[in-house]
Amino acid sequence: xxxxxxxxxxxxxxxxxxxxxxxxxxxxxxxxxxxxxxxxxxxxxxxxxxxxxxxxxxxxxxxxxxxxxxxxxxxxxxxxxxxxxxxxxxxxxxxxxxxxxxxxxxxxxxxxxxxxxxx
Length: 119
Hints:
72% of the residues lie in helices and 7% in strands. By secondary structure, it is mainly α. The longest helix is centred in the middle third of the chain and has 32 residues, at 27-58.
């Protein structure tokens, strides 16, 4: 298949997936990703509250779009956490780091959105 060199781990030969599981497929990373998802939900709830408050004052169609946007992202993060924790949907070989990375990038994007919203 392919060979990949990992620090301190030697060479990974694609024929032995158990080495790859130990290196990147660690379920602990998926659990950390679930914690980041919970933080994302917290940020989204703050954004949702802010958008609903603004909508009540402005009755703007754009603000209603932001309310719907935040609501859908909350549902998406709840479903993502469900698959991470209950269904073990992303615990396959090598999935821990990519899933955690996606959650961290979303957290950063939500922080930027929250800061922009409060300016």
